[in-house]
Amino acid sequence: MTAVPPVGSYVVDTGSGRLGQVMGREGPYLQLRPFGGGREWACLPEAARAATTTERLRAATAYANARSRGEVP
After folding, report:
1. Are 19 and 9 in contact (CB under 8 A)?
2. pTM of the complete model
């Protein structure tokens, strides 16, 4: 059985390649939210792996750049 990542941790959904923060669990799925907020999506725990520091920094930088361009609030 795959260990369930704790709420608040960052994981990569290997099915989609997206990085998300674990918000909780709904049935057999993890609920993930994109870095900086947004619409949650479901991911099977087996398809999630811990995000590396580089991946988290890349997501934070992309969000900061989008925010500076006015693309996100």
Report:
1. no
2. 0.88
Planar angle of CA 64, 68, 69, nearest 5 degrees: 120
Cα separation, 18 vs 15, whole angstroms: 8
SS3 letters across the chain: CCCCCCCCCEEEECCCCEEEEEEEEECCEEEEEECCCCCCEEECHHHEEECCHHHHHHHHHHHHHHHHCCCCC
Place of tokens 């709420």: 7
pLDDT tens, N- to C-terminus, the chain (73 residues): 467 899 999 999 999 999 999 999 999 999 999 999 999 999 999 999 999 999 999 999 999 999 999 998 7
Q: Kindly report the number of other CB atoms within 10 A of residue 22's CB atom.
A: 20
